[in-house]
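Subgroup meeting minutes
Present: P.N., E.W., G.H.
Scribe: E.W.

1. P.N. recapped why we're keeping a running log of single-chain structure predictions: easier to compare across weeks, and new members can see raw inputs and outputs side by side.
2. G.H. added today's entry (247 aa).
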Amino acid sequence: MKKVVLLRHGESVWNNENRFTGWTDVDLSPKGVEEAAAAGKVLKENGFSFQKAYTSYLKRAVKTLNGVLDAMDLDWIPVEKSWRLNEKHYGMLQGLNKTETAAKYGEEQVLVWRRSYDIAPAPLAADDSRSPRFDIRYSELKDAEIPLTESLKETVERAVPFWENVIAPSMKQYDQVIVTAHGNSLRGIIKFLKNISDKDIISLNLPTAVPYVFEFDDSMNLVKDSFLGDPDEIAKKMNAVANQGKK
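Output recorded in log:
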């Protein structure tokens, strides 16, 4: 049996402030650091021992992975980073408070921006200093690969190929891997793995730092998926994520 754990990063500073983050490279909050260590502890207690890890270019995901691996005494395993695992780019919304934005534009519009499948927020201007094109870590990307905003559909179109071409093939070599990334890049992969419809993906809310375990047979056919932890606590965390865009 092959196992892949998908893990949204721990709470970030902007999560705590209820801001749209996207590709903005904000750090973990103190709570987020604790969440990462707790996730590593529960994974170790449940017998996980990863041979490879994947994460994004954003420090909140990288530091969450570091915290998990440190708690598991697995700091030494190989880690591969990719921009394709970055969060959905929120365009001009990045940095805005979600509650204030909901009060200004309405909860329905904010839900569309946050959770709809094929509608993206207004883009950054091409010369906006916040554009990823001015960030050295993306200097090797083609202009067409650098987003100024994204829908979930566009996030899926860059994240799923990384699953298909990198992560899934690596399972021929490894029995257990962990992918520490972001709410929307992981939702895109989950949508693909579970064949979730464009409509139903709107209702999937991933809590911070709760391991989501996917089990596959040797041919990488999905057999089972489940969150690791107390179901009631996980439900509360999911509900909190769902309510972030409300007035």
